[in-house]
Write a structure and sequence with these properties.
The chain is of the alpha/beta class. The chain contains 17 helices and 20 strands.
């Protein structure tokens, strides 16, 4: 007994949302006061507190509980004190495992104060019955919570937390617009309508330094559920953008019963079929118009169909055709499925032959090239990080000036064209009023003007986005260098590495040269673009060759030096 009191006595406190409804008796404050008093009365010299606030008793993956387990396994803890057995948990089998196996095997004494349990005083025959009763309580509470949620959901009250762009209305149970985040949502939909994909939008938001939703909620102190902090608060993923662009809540709708838990013991939520969702239209103020939402869904549906045709490769969505700029599609060789490749649809007769030649690249050859170039970049950073950053700054600043100037000229031209259409529209109205053209003719002309101006508005927005994304070159280089420093020397590529480091890759047509085929591949990195100057910093270009079929060898032709 004396030896155990020299070790640490763990005071374990747990409170769930259900417990909060039962009044003050189970509050963290009351549990703490009770356990501190009992620990002092029993002569424990050292105590350590473990608190799980807001965790269900059926969930044993609690932060403090798992820390307490680690401390037990390291031999620091001799005794665990809880207010009662339900604080330990409300799962009969799991609690039984801890009381009958885990604690005894680690020579840990258990004291449940109000239940009269102290394992140093011998076995308590009523512990299993208390555990069963605690689990029944959890099951009953779950039924009541589900019933209450069903009533709220059927009444059109939002069941989930507000999505990024909204926050809870303090004066009601609904949502109101969070204007700072809502502006980012509007930008995402506008960019999607102009033809940009989820990965491009995510890359633009990352470059512009917007806090991603998790980090934004954390900074603003807004409540989130089941989401951990991320390492870089400014990194946006294409999946985040993809989910944002499909949420009809941004039109002002409430969508309830989208997910369900298979059991009150389970933390995992499963998606319900769309036909089981309950939708209440115009329940709160919209961030975007319903028309814009439908237009974006229509545009994205084609993308989803293409992706559904086959398995995605780690390079899917990153490859662009050098000639027409289209995304390259991923394919399997029909005769040998182990051979996978990308090609441009523009050379296909069904796409009106917008490309003069096939822009084709083997996936295994591409992987060798990109891995070698990334390894070369990291090697250059190891040799002279300051020189790499300085050269990048010079390059990016020069490119940014050129890009900004060209986009500003384009912006002036677009705005001028927009004003010209306004003047033409006014003249059509005047001609109609004077009887020079009839109503049908005016309607057709006006419809054409409106379509032209919608297209111009999208192009103006896209130009402004490009200008904004190229304005802060110093921050871009700093972010790129931070990303490079965070990467360990890779032996194999994966999608996560590519998402963090690569913006897109340009694929050129392979050409015959001196009895071999050579293919140029240009890698454009996030924030800084191409880095074709690495050879001038003392890191030689990789020599990569691959025999692609009998008698045919393909050689890598790096991008031209931009030093």
């Amino acid at each position: 007994m004396k030896d155990t009191k020299k070790k640490v006595a763990a005071l374990y406190l747990r409170l769930s949302r259900d417990d909060e409804l039962q009044g003050e008796s189970n509050s963290i404050t009351n549990q703490r006061a009770l356990l501190e008093r009992v620990a002092a009365d029993k002569g424990f010299i050292k105590t350590k507190e473990y608190v799980d606030d807001g965790y269900s008793g059926t969930n044993f993956e609690r932060t403090a509980f798992m820390q307490m387990e680690r401390d037990i396994e390291e031999g620091h803890i001799s005794t665990v004190l809880v207010k009662d057995m339900s604080r330990l948990g409300r799962d009969y089998l799991k609690v039984g495992y801890y009381t009958e196996h885990y604690f005894p095997n680690h020579k840990v004494r258990l004291i449940a104060v109000t239940d009269g349990v102290d394992t140093d005083e011998g076995e308590n025959e009523f512990i299993p019955f208390r555990n069963i009763m605690n689990e029944w309580y959890a099951r009953d509470a779950s039924k009541k919570v589900k019933a209450a949620a069903r009533v709220r959901g059927m009444a059109g009250i939002p069941l989930g937390l507000p999505p990024y762009g909204y926050k809870r209305d303090e004066n009601s149970k609904g949502w109101v617009i969070d204007e700072e985040a809502a502006e980012v949502v509007r930008r995402a939909f506008s960019m999607a309508l102009s033809g940009m994909g989820s990965e491009q939008i995510a890359a633009a938001f990352t470059r512009e330094g917007f806090l991603n939703p998790v980090s934004y909620w954390d900074e603003k102190g807004l409540k989130t559920r089941g989401i951990r902090k991320v390492a870089d608060p400014h990194i946006w993923s294409d999946s985040t953008i993809g989910k944002m662009l499909t949420r009809r809540e941004y039109c002002g709708d409430v969508v309830n019963f989208k997910t369900a838990k298979p059991s009150y013991k389970s933390k995992k939520r499963i998606e319900r079929p769309i036909e089981e969702h309950l939708i209440f239209e115009d329940a709160h103020e919209p961030i975007i118009s319903r028309e814009l939402f439908e237009q974006v869904q229509k545009k994205r549906s084609g993308i989803r169909r293409r992706k559904a045709q086959g398995e995605r490769n780690i390079f899917s969505g990153l490859l662009r055709c050098e000639e027409c700029g289209a995304n390259l599609n991923f394919h399997f060789n029909q005769l040998n499925p182990e051979i996978t490749y990308f090609n441009c649809p523009g050379n296909n007769s069904s796409h009106n032959k917008t490309c003069s030649s096939t822009h084709y690249v083997r996936a295994d050859f591409l992987e060798k090239v990109v891995l070698s170039e990334i390894q070369r970049l990291l090697q250059c950073c190891d040799i002279d990080e300051e020189e790499l950053a300085r050269t990048l700054m010079e390059k990016v600043t020069s490119e940014s000036r050129h890009t900004i100037e060209s986009q500003r000229q384009r912006l002036v031209s677009l705005e001028k064209r927009d004003s010209e259409i306004d003047l033409m529209a006014r003249k059509v109205y005047e001609d109609n009023a004077l009887g020079r053209i009839n109503d049908d003719r005016m309607a057709k002309l006006m419809a054409g003007f409106e379509a032209d101006q919608e297209a111009i508005a999208s192009q103006i927005e896209a130009a402004r986005i490009v200008i904004l994304s190229f304005e802060d070159t110093e921050l871009d280089v700093e972010r790129f260098m931070k990303t490079v420093r965070s990467i360990t020397y890779p032996r194999k590529l994966n999608r996560s590495l590519l998402n963090h480091l690569v913006d897109h890759i340009i694929i050129h047509h392979a050409v015959a040269s001196e009895g071999r085929r050579k293919q140029r591949i240009d890698i454009f990195y996030s924030f800084v673009g191409s880095v074709g100057f690495l050879d001038s910093l003392g890191v030689s270009q990789p020599e990569i060759s691959m025999r692609i079929r009998k008698g045919v060898t393909l050689d890598y032709s790096p991008a031209l030096s931009t030093a």
